[in-house]
Design brief:
The protein has 379 residues and is mainly β. It folds into 3 domains: 66 residues, no CATH class; 148 residues, Lipocalin (Beta Barrel), CATH 2.40.128; 139 residues, Kelch-type beta propeller (Neuraminidase, 6 Propeller), CATH 2.120.10. It is built from 7 helices and 27 strands. Strands 1, 2, 3, 4 and 27 form a 5-stranded antiparallel sheet that branches. Helix 3 packs parallel to helix 6.
């Protein structure tokens, strides 16, 4: 059963009656609220959205602060998810469907559908950032922004951002629950929003014009950018101090021999590079996948692991996306099929690759974002 699926309810009339029952006579609605909140908070994440179909009272529980606090204390972890595919159901429909890879259970899952608010349906949107349980969608000019919590289906349109750049590129999102705010990092600036949707833009030094941003990672107050030189094609890491809003003087070259489809991620409080080896064959675009740990003070790399599973590499194409959660780095490859391989830094072990099972490749675009469900954070 997919998340939010009501097929079981439709097969059991007594449950269907409970959903439409406003009289309070249903046995489901007669249960004490505190008992229901505690019991539901103990459920694994997928079942939360199944039980919402039982009755109206249960359906509204996830919006209650008491339930959200109970879920925070729940001993059953909800796990982390990677969402590489998201699309519109029925082409121009505002209904958004998406699938994620559950890093805790090692399987693909369908997530609860949600739809754009009415005022936003006349625009074209792309998912451009995600963090802390929130999604950030941007219009084509990246100035009109929407932030939503896909679990609670709450939306907020942010104040437009005024930047000198004609097409500001959003590269990262940082959610701070304690301050009830979030930062959105643009290529040349940082904008902060609080829960009222007010924004402040802090101008930073421009990224050199001859460098193209490929991916980025936030770690310990600094933003690490993997860039490619426009003319030479060389990959380098440049570091932005988010306190001083200045670029560090030292540019760090990525390891020689591993320059195919590189990505940079933050994992376990350190910055890592994931890249395919430059060696290729007629049947494989890369002979192995390397993971390297960066020492920013020494501007040097330490090889953490090299993955050379022939069967896996032969069945994949380029590295399509990369991310991290906790102590795990996940590498997504794509040719005719999508595969995901997970490396556990704490154990030094690669997990068995999993093949993605997608319903339809039409009207679907890539996201390459990590996502962890969070009912407490508001857009």
């Amino acid at each position: 059963m997919a998340y939010g699926d009501v097929s079981v309810v439709s097969m059991m009339p007594e449950l269907t009656n409970s959903i439409d029952d406003d009289s309070g006579s249903s046995p489901w609605t007669s249960l004490p609220t505190d008992i229901v909140e505690h019991a539901l908070a103990l459920l694994p994440f997928p079942y939360i959205f199944q039980v919402r179909s039982i009755c109206k009272k249960w359906n509204s529980l996830i919006f209650c602060s008491q339930f959200q606090e109970a879920s925070l204390r729940c001993p059953v972890p909800w796990g982390q998810f990677y969402s590489p595919r998201i699309g519109w159901k029925g082409g121009a429909s505002p209904l958004v469907t998406w699938q994620s890879y559950n890093l805790s259970e090692g399987k693909w899952v369908s997530m609860p559908q949600f739809e754009f608010p009415t005022f936003a349906r006349k625009f074209s949107w792309n998912l451009i950032a995600a963090n802390g349980g929130l999604f950030c969608f941007g219009a084509s000019d990246a100035r009109r922004l929407l932030v939503c919590n896909p679990m609670t289906k709450r939306w907020k349109e942010l104040l437009p951002v005024s930047l000198d750049s004609k097409a500001p590129i959003i590269s990262h999102m940082i959610v701070d629950e304690q301050r009830n705010s979030y930062d959105i990092l643009f290529l040349v600036s940082k904008a902060s929003w609080d829960t009222r949707g007010l924004s402040v833009v802090f101008a930073a030094e421009m990224l050199p014009a001859d460098l193209i941003l490929k991916s980025g990672a936030y770690c310990s107050g600094e933003f690490y950018c993997l860039t490619r030189h426009f003319l030479t094609g060389r990959y380098t890491i440049v570091i932005l101090d988010l306190t001083m809003l200045r670029w560090r003087d030292n540019n760090i070259r990525i390891p020689e021999g591993f320059e195919n489809y590189p990505y940079i991620v933050a994992c376990s409080g350190q910055v890592h590079l994931v890249s395919g080896s430059s060696e290729a064959t007629d049947t494989m675009p890369m002979a192995s996948i390397g993971i390297f740990r960066l020492d920013p003070n020494l501007s040097s790399w330490e090889k953490v692991s090299e993955y050379s599973n022939f069967q896996f590499l032969r069945s994949t194409g380029a590295i399509y996306g990369c991310g991290a959660h906790g102590s795990k780095i996940y590498v997504v490859t794509y040719a005719y099929d999508m595969w995901i391989a997970v490396y556990n830094i704490s154990t030094g072990i690669w997990e068995e690759p999993i093949k993605g099972n997608f319903y339809d490749m039409k009207d679907i675009f890539e996201t390459k974002f990590s996502f962890q469900p969070n009912l407490r954070v508001a857009p």
